[in-house]
Amino acid sequence: MQIIENTRNDLLKRNEVITLVESEQNPGFDEMRKQISEQVGKPEENVDVYNIKGSFGIKEFKINANVYDSKENLEKNKIKTKKQRDGEKKEVKEEAKIKEKPIEGQAPAEDKLKEVQEETKSEKPSEAPAEDKSEEEVKAVKEEKQGEEEAKEHQ
Questions:
Q1: Residue in 17, 26, 16 with CA at minimum distance from that of residue 60
Q2: What's the start-to-end Cα distance of the chain, in Å?
Q3: pLDDT tens-digit map of 28-61
Q4: If both were cysteines, with which of 18, 20, 22, 47 could 5 make a disulfide (CB 3.0 to 4.6 Å apart)?
Q5: Is the distance from CB of 5 to CB of 16 less than 8 angstroms?
């Protein structure tokens, strides 16, 4: 492993490292993180390997990494993909929905839902089920419905 470039970025409190590695197959991010941490003398958790680039037929790989002074700086400044950023936005929106507080004088949505369910339970159906009625009552109800339908058709 050769370190081609090691630039200090005081603003972000990190060293920006570019290295060349010769390998038969593509090196993994975890493997490179270990090697760079040993080479630079910082803990593995402070190293962010963000690019491994190789060319076809050549056994050299160019590795770009950032070596931070502390783990907090890494978490604060780590480069994130669009997919990771979108996932964080969704999580924040979901948390905001959960934490939404009702306006004074209004009941929370859960309470409103319970109220509506209780109202529907307390309302009695206008007609009792056919099983509870006698045969004469069932016939009378059917005749009324037919009469109403015929009246609508004639209008």
A1: 26
A2: 94
A3: 999 999 999 999 888 999 999 999 999 888 899 9
A4: 18
A5: yes
Closest CA to 10 of 80, 87, 73, 99: 73
CA 22 – CA 61 distance, rounded (Å): 6
- Let me know: does 43 contact 37? Beta carbons within 8 Å: yes
User: Cα–Cα distance between 21 and 2 in angstroms, integer?
Assistant: 7
Give the global pTM: 0.52
Domain boundaries, the chain: 2-80
Q: What is the CATH number of domain 2-80?
A: 3.30.70.3370
pLDDT confidence of residue 64:
94
- Residues 148 and 155: their CA atoms lie apart, in Å, by 11
Is 69 within 8 Å of 13 (Cβ atoms)? yes
Measured CA to CA, the distance from residue 25 to residue 61 in angstroms comes to 9
Q: Which of 125, 117, 33, 144 is nearest to 78 (CA)?
A: 33
CB-based contact 86:106 (threshold 8 Å): no
